[in-house]
């Protein structure tokens, strides 16, 4: 119910106004009445009404003064001025202090109901906006937790490399004790319990943010049915791990049985929204907010340490915060570390690389399948799969570099880029597909004729030259001469490979870069021309219009980025 306050020195006016309002129908309740501005100010501070009906002309402390004070003390209150005077000064004061509307006495019920409807619509929109801001601030807080946890995991991996073989987990104490900002809307007495959900299979679906939003809405509806209703939550999709969702619960009592029941609900929802099963892990007990980054890191370790044959699991991780902690039986396979390196199939890797070197594509594929079968055994862990797959990428890159080439030259992606793609995957099917669809075809294709290989490499070098030095004067005859090649031959080769001649390709690239720079109003047009390799601004503007169909001014005006 929204609270209403009436301030008027005439009792019969107050009574008449109150009787005109359909209170229950509009969801309103009368909070208080006041006979003058002074009493009105005191009661307004006490009751904090949503709506205020205010007479402007009262003895002593009048409506003008009250409007001024409330504009500072209660800026969100919606004020409807009710006066028997259409005096310009009163109207001006009402406008200056942002009164919502101005009604003249005697009041007409139809006018009153109309104004109330508009005022309530404004209040509803304000509440929606504030609720969205509140949700966003809580979500951003959780994203901060996840990012800190990522940093903790990276630091721990670096610091623990020697100790992991001994089965020791060391918590990143510095990150654990670093003070997080206070979560909006949570009291200091509530503790936090973190749940982490990750997809069992890699998916490139982009709807994970929508799934997180639906989870929030479903949890809101389910709040009365869990933990006696005495809890709150915040959910967010991870900014760095594709498909991952974190849900942080706040309250004073969390029973494991109820957590499991809630997790099953969430797993079902995620499967319905994304089309893949999810595994979910929770902390074994609530913790302080500033311990959450370390808890997040440990939950990730547990999920990364699950065996490839484990799907849709739900479990708990002990989260004691001693400096050194031996893993429980549930965590014996965590973290993977150096111990898992013993299981890397090095002999099968060598057999694969030999066939690759010999250029026997079919045999190379057969050896790769043997290698990957060993890599994807159900008893191996997610982290072990990813580490081993990354080691194979490294071995491939090392062999290619020995032949004066690289994965980036052959496929357009560097070895580090492929390792990051592997890190995002948690199942052997998607990792194998990455090799079969992207890495192996690019590597096998280099076994063409030496002339074809040389020509394609030359064109790639010219493209890289343009990307790095488009702001410099580039001439195909000079480039060809520097390589002791015929310019006509190089030009025909370039056009055959790219579909464009050298000059058109360079021009298109420069114009594309120019349009990127035009997003920034601080750049003048002539500065952009120079930055993309045109000394003559007039010539640049002619080329720009020819390529885009717009003048520079039209283009920047349409984008709302005219120079400052």
UniProtKB/TrEMBL annotation:
List, alphabetically, the InterPro entries matched.
CheY-like_superfamily, Homeodomain-like_sf, HptR, HTH_AraC, Sig_transdc_resp-reg_receiver
The organism's place on the tree of life at top rank: Bacteria
Q: Which SMART domains match?
A: HTH_ARAC (SM00342), REC (SM00448)
Q: HTH araC/xylS-type domain: which residues?
A: 460-558
Q: Name one GO cellular component term.
A: cytoplasm
What are the alphabetically sorted keywords of the record?
Cytoplasm, DNA-binding, Phosphoprotein, Transcription, Transcription regulation, Two-component regulatory system
| Example GO biological process | phosphorelay signal transduction system
Q: Which residues form the Response regulatory domain?
A: 3-120
Alphabetized GO MF terms: DNA-binding transcription factor activity; sequence-specific DNA binding
Q: At which residues is 4-aspartylphosphate found?
A: 55
Q: Where in the cell is it found?
A: Cytoplasm
Indicate the principal place this protein occupies in or around the cell: cytoplasm
Tell me what this protein is called.
DNA-binding response regulator
